[in-house]
Amino acid sequence: MHIQKKDKFIVNKPKEHCAIFGVTCNDLGFSVTKYLYQGLIALQHRGQESTGISISTPGGKIYTYKRNGLVPKVLNNKILSKYWGNVGIGHNRYATTGATGYKSTDYMQPFHFNNNEIEFSIAFNGTIANFDEIKKNMNELGRVFITDTDTEVMAQLIGSIALGTEDWPEVLKIASKLLDGSYSLILMTSKGDIYAMRDPLGFKPLCIGELKDSKKNLYFVASESCAIDVVGGILLRDVKPGEIVHLSHQKDIHSEIILKSNRTALCQFEFVYFSRPDSIIDGVSVAEVRFRLGINLAKNDPILKNPEIKENAIVVPVPDSGRSVAVGYAKEAGLPYIEGLMKNRYVHRTFIMPGQEKRKIAVREKLNPIKSIVQGKDVILLDDSIVRGTTTQQIIALLKEKGGAKRVHLRISCPPIISPCYMGIDFPTKEELIAGRLQILYGEQYLEEIQKRIGSDTILYQTIDDLTDAIGKNKNQLCLACLTGEYPLKSIQKLAEMESSIIKSRS
Amino acid sequence: MHIQKKDKFIVNKPKEHCAIFGVTCNDLGFSVTKYLYQGLIALQHRGQESTGISISTPGGKIYTYKRNGLVPKVLNNKILSKYWGNVGIGHNRYATTGATGYKSTDYMQPFHFNNNEIEFSIAFNGTIANFDEIKKNMNELGRVFITDTDTEVMAQLIGSIALGTEDWPEVLKIASKLLDGSYSLILMTSKGDIYAMRDPLGFKPLCIGELKDSKKNLYFVASESCAIDVVGGILLRDVKPGEIVHLSHQKDIHSEIILKSNRTALCQFEFVYFSRPDSIIDGVSVAEVRFRLGINLAKNDPILKNPEIKENAIVVPVPDSGRSVAVGYAKEAGLPYIEGLMKNRYVHRTFIMPGQEKRKIAVREKLNPIKSIVQGKDVILLDDSIVRGTTTQQIIALLKEKGGAKRVHLRISCPPIISPCYMGIDFPTKEELIAGRLQILYGEQYLEEIQKRIGSDTILYQTIDDLTDAIGKNKNQLCLACLTGEYPLKSIQKLAEMESSIIKSRS
Amino acid sequence: MHIQKKDKFIVNKPKEHCAIFGVTCNDLGFSVTKYLYQGLIALQHRGQESTGISISTPGGKIYTYKRNGLVPKVLNNKILSKYWGNVGIGHNRYATTGATGYKSTDYMQPFHFNNNEIEFSIAFNGTIANFDEIKKNMNELGRVFITDTDTEVMAQLIGSIALGTEDWPEVLKIASKLLDGSYSLILMTSKGDIYAMRDPLGFKPLCIGELKDSKKNLYFVASESCAIDVVGGILLRDVKPGEIVHLSHQKDIHSEIILKSNRTALCQFEFVYFSRPDSIIDGVSVAEVRFRLGINLAKNDPILKNPEIKENAIVVPVPDSGRSVAVGYAKEAGLPYIEGLMKNRYVHRTFIMPGQEKRKIAVREKLNPIKSIVQGKDVILLDDSIVRGTTTQQIIALLKEKGGAKRVHLRISCPPIISPCYMGIDFPTKEELIAGRLQILYGEQYLEEIQKRIGSDTILYQTIDDLTDAIGKNKNQLCLACLTGEYPLKSIQKLAEMESSIIKSRS
Amino acid sequence: MHIQKKDKFIVNKPKEHCAIFGVTCNDLGFSVTKYLYQGLIALQHRGQESTGISISTPGGKIYTYKRNGLVPKVLNNKILSKYWGNVGIGHNRYATTGATGYKSTDYMQPFHFNNNEIEFSIAFNGTIANFDEIKKNMNELGRVFITDTDTEVMAQLIGSIALGTEDWPEVLKIASKLLDGSYSLILMTSKGDIYAMRDPLGFKPLCIGELKDSKKNLYFVASESCAIDVVGGILLRDVKPGEIVHLSHQKDIHSEIILKSNRTALCQFEFVYFSRPDSIIDGVSVAEVRFRLGINLAKNDPILKNPEIKENAIVVPVPDSGRSVAVGYAKEAGLPYIEGLMKNRYVHRTFIMPGQEKRKIAVREKLNPIKSIVQGKDVILLDDSIVRGTTTQQIIALLKEKGGAKRVHLRISCPPIISPCYMGIDFPTKEELIAGRLQILYGEQYLEEIQKRIGSDTILYQTIDDLTDAIGKNKNQLCLACLTGEYPLKSIQKLAEMESSIIKSRS
């Protein structure tokens, strides 16, 4: 979901743009709302700003409820008790911190489309690159929009195509020919049919699952397989890139591939950071990928050949994101893994004190080095990625100044991020990406410059080849745009080049 | 703080009863509210139910604000903007979930005492064992109480002693002779003086810190040293058992020991579970204790001598509490540490589905085994303690049934908990403690019985000697009552024996 | 539209009873809702109480939305986004302030008629004089009414005639034979046909327009031509008295005259006050009429022959209604036009202070004399009409007391209003009309008496001959009933005489 | 009041930043709320976004109510009935259209300051240039801000100075030494005293008035004298630049000049556009100034010497802002004044249709040329100012294309606006000001270029000398910064030069 916004808070991590979940039960008297609760809570890491559900009733109506807040706050017992229906879809929206005005439920999902002719509800994860153009065309046909979101554009487009037809696969097929971008979506009709669709390049994950017991039979659609685990179901398979899957009580699962593409473009960052380690995406275990990324780093690490350093070294993750990779590194290196930074899990928002020291303080509320562990040590610090670099710099400073670490060796499980993402991840512009900016300014020496600015004694990134090996897919199957600057969609490539030339002209 | 309550939710972990924090600045125009915010957020793990602050102004008034909720929600910018003053104290109350009626601010701390003669505010952590008796005596003197809390009893007692005097050390000295129990407290007068006091046995931690810059000079009092780190201060020292420390702008720090005791009784569970690993309590690093507890377990572990098992073994913590000990164990054992359970950090409340399977589902929302990691493995599962045993049982079942673990070997960093705590920890009764109940029923064979019921293939607890060694203190310096049933206060010992005989008569 | 009501606020100006607007587009995929928005906002001066639209969809359904409030509030983006269709009609209802119970949407227009046989929507401007009689007859045929409006009577009558036929021109022809009164109406069928009809005497204006571009072709019907300007269309012509015009995509514009009348009775007050000056009614520019009315007044004005007065005179309009006429007067008189009264355009409602002075205060909130302009001057004050006279009296008092005007010469562009209107204008009874009442009481001297009571130094009204000359139509083409007491419909004449005799018996 | 915002709507006119009004009555039992209603409605033209009042009660408390909306909507009868008190202040905030997030009452005025020590309420009109700097200093003293407004900075500054003192004149004196910018303010204490202060240069108007009757005695403070007229009071005098006026029941009016300045800088635009014509500012009638501006234009107008044009010419104002000046012009020129453009007074918001023609449509909803008046004429079009130029261009196009005007001669009562205002008016940047931009690009030929782009046949601006003559003040008494680029405050001058050099570098 795309909203233009200006963050006034420091964004330290890329933020995923949504989670979607759907469920349908063959027992018309059974209410699936609780499964929406459980599925969405399992996907909460993909979006913490707002929570929404749409429920389809056997009587042919759709009811939608959405509010700002985490799943347990929004879907409280009152709401779970009030909303009944044997089919439902749900959505978590990511944190657009500081983007006021988007508190309106109009900006949340699912988008419940209901004009005088057509009714359906839609939840999606991704970004429509050409939404402005589609909106303009629809404006000229008299359509009026109430938000600035690509979600509404998509919904109004589908609504316009569906005028006078009920052939939903055909509607989605036509829509997908007009939509340019990344989209994993779930559409629920007022008749209680669920359609799951993934864009032809398969940028975002989407999978289906099943739960059968003696009394009832349920199907699920979810952004990640961990949600299917949590509702007690079993993972059937992923929705394929360019596939529409129809989940219906009458006909079971029915699928058709509407658009075939020579290549796919699954986001590599799903493996590196976004997805939960217990998820399996397109057949690959996220946890295993991260473990292998740690092994790769250790294999390539020159400091492990220096006995003076190795003897004095401990492997410390940046919690929580660095743990999986640190464990792999420690095992391969034969070094002790240890938690040298305490994370306060109650700090979601950071109160920023005025003055120059504010950033250090902001990090200090979240992370505190454990002096008794790191003092005098060569700390091999593992993290998943560097975006702006400011947080990493502060962590290293804390480890040295407060913790008394002898040296800090930064190891990053992802290759340098040099380009923004236009496919649904809230990365900053190239200018704000430390690797992107310094690569422009310093060329091949940019890694040394990053190391200097961040204050680490040594630095080591994953290579792109090691990354694809760890994922077990080749470069024609993944989107590596943030690492290479090469975008799998031509429309995006053009956009990225335009932005890049503006930055160059400024510097 | 003591409140009688009935939980309708399952308590799986002992819960600490509060955090306290105080600050005083020598610049009368400076407002310390933001330090209260930061100090309390660093101590949020000790209490999540309610947040409160009292502010003393240069004009000699005290203003108090307290509400249910986490620190960032209660101390929002509006409140921080409204409350000014150069001296303040704050308090986090732990979760008395389901205890309705305690939502009244009367039940929150700090307790702001203000009659027509005397005004002060008090925040404390601990339990007054003889509060019913004191209340009865004071009732007879015409005092009227509005709550059922020991906090109010303590405040009214102090208020009564202080009638007609301003010698606060003397007042506290007299009060402490009448109060039987555990108490670390901070008292703030309307003149802006802060007094920190720890009971003679020193059950609960309490420490003081300092922050000096060119413009101002601040002192802090805190339940744990991590709060002093987070506000940017340096730890001066712990408040000693039986000591009153006076923090004042005029006289700096002034201290007197009012009650000396041959022994002390620092709660062992602060090291095992409660305190943050980055805290240092009475000179001992919590993180180091936990690391040593892991080493001890590995040293004593028979399965490490079985090559078949060792070869197939991985060391998996129960997140987040088992990590520190697992790291120590893995290092000593020479085995890989790995995260085999995914924890959902957004689940605070668990939605319980009806029917018998509810407990498994409840755990499933929080923890999901990572099949690709644990499948076919001998999982050495590390946790800090077993209370009722129900959660542990479900985790082991998940690891085997969903994760496909070959065997699960449970390793606990704390010796068996067999007796309830009367000193401020929310342990259940002996009957509800799995080790307590089975020890009564099965005598020396109770560990085998625990293993059977919990479903682990082997089980190993820490020994009490190893525990005291790891802490580096002897049995006369620690409270081990929950492990031994021997209470350091005679009044409590009597209470415990009474309760125990009731249970025996029932079974 | 006729509703019986009791105003608790003082009505200072006659208020028109509604605006109607319709549009049809030949492109079935185009949504005309935005044109309804623009057309109705251009006609907002004719009604500010409620706004309503009916939309006909290509699928053959009609959807209606109406609410209290101005057009921009009711037809907000959410509504414009929700209602689609290539044909639509809309309506503004005038302010029945204080008439509670009429907040129900049942009392708003368009009236969406939908029983199990017939569906259409109707919007009209006018008053059905014999609606009580028709209602009685239909009651006897088993019809059940839910409101007290002539709108519903008209709709039920049309619905009854249409039973079993789809020949809408025939239906309307029959209806118009039964309906006695003024009515300009638009009827929209569920098939998307639009019929515009004007009563045989043509009391109320109604016109049609067109907009063609390369992609689409639109027709419009509107109460006034200014609405056609605002939607970007061109005025084709007026609907003739007694004509039915059929607007359809298949057949373009088709018309038939159903009832011919020897005379017509276009309301003179449309030119004097109601219509927007930029409208053209039955071929006559409203702005030009008003300009000529000012010229006429100056030509007849004796004070312009008094050099002492003329030298000291300024021409001041009562804003906003007096401007057009004042400009004509000033030009003819060769005197300076100047704005001597400031009008607060944000005052729609007037807060009335208790006590006798309330009326002065009420006017004071809306109008403030500009002392630097009027002080010491002979103010020639131009307004369009005098109804009760109270406001005019207060304005004159303000000009003299606060503004310091030497003399005030009142000049009125309309002849004295002596009789109520039964044709759709909210005039008070003859008793409440200052000219009507004083004519009964003082006979021919009533003008001197008005001058005395109103506090002006001289007074001059338009003559009826000058009025018809300015409009450019003769007395057989206009309704002058409020000026002459002679009503063009016999049924009304009888009603008026009855009411008049009641008044005489009272005085 | 200063808020950073991004308008998404086209701003066609500079918008004033607020109105303030205060009243105090010597009868403690009398409630002044109704006077706040009347005073604020008279000042509604200075701000339409939100309305707020603070009431001080004889008991020493302050109650504040503020909401989005016009005065009559916010101060409805329920509110007027609920809020009682003999002293009160009020505020209208200007329209920050589209600036969502500012719907919070925190962003409205009066700002009711109430911490644990001090209580007062403040309403102000102006802009504090150095508010960021003051905020930073106060942050370092521990103050926490909840908005981004200079209002809150001013309130917190005053609150900090007032700590421990009740000498309000002294407090305001100190505050005004620290505040750099334009500010007319009213401060009300919890004791019911009212202090009115105007900044040393007197940028914004502020005046006091009185109302005495047999029973009570009232004092008023108002942004403009028209508000004192409307409440029925008499204007006493203006508050002088740098003066603090204390209105109190005990001591009547007491005043002191705290800061003397060699020059003053009353905003010229108050005379040209902002203030109501019936107001008198610093002794000068706004209506008279505007009349003289029209006379000046006619005196300098070369086309009046061309008989061919003059014979065919009519003087047409852009309603409502061009009327006053058009009247003066017409009189001096001896030409007929006539209303040739119809304004829809119900259009506050404009619905924008997509596509290139949207701007024309937007203007078309508001203004429609009256063809019968302007056709074939030389239209001398009078307006007060040109800001961006887009609206003017569209009006001229409408007059020619729709109205059939032969030629349009644009006459502007204000000299070219070439520089933005930093003192409280919502002017766009120099780059967006048509005169500013074209002066940079075309130098001395910029007027010809404006004429070409705007599409008028001739153009004539007021000269600066004629403007100051018409106002009757010299250049050392007025702020002419938007016309000359020379700012009366050095801090602003620097800011303006910085911005200007950025623009130059871009073009």
Q: What does the model show?
A:
The structure is a homotetramer of 507-residue chains. Chain A has 507 residues and is of the alpha+beta class. The first copy, chain A, folds into two domains: 247 residues, Aminohydrolase, N-terminal nucleophile (Ntn) domain (Glutamine Phosphoribosylpyrophosphate, subunit 1, domain 1, 4-Layer Sandwich), CATH 3.60.20.10; 222 residues, Rossmann fold. Helix content of chain A is 33%, strand content 24%. Chain A contains 19 helices and 23 strands. Chain A has a seven-stranded antiparallel beta sheet. In chain A, a hairpin with a 5-residue loop joins strand 2 and strand 3. In chain A, helix 4 crosses helix 5, helix 9 crosses helix 11 and helix 15 crosses helix 16. The longest helix of chain A has 17 residues. Chain A is globular and about 75 Å long. Chain A starts with 18 loop residues before the first strand and ends with a helix. The N terminus of chain A is likely disordered. The interface between C and D is large, with 53 and 55 residues.
Major β-sheet strand ordering of chain A: 3-2-4-1-10-9-11
Query: CATH H level of the largest domain in chain A: which superfamily?
Result: Aminohydrolase, N-terminal nucleophile (Ntn) domain
Poorly predicted tracts of residues of chain A: 1-12, 96-101, 349-359
Please give the domain count of chain A.
Answer: 2
How many helices of chain A?
19
Q: CATH class of the largest domain in chain A, anyone?
A: Alpha Beta
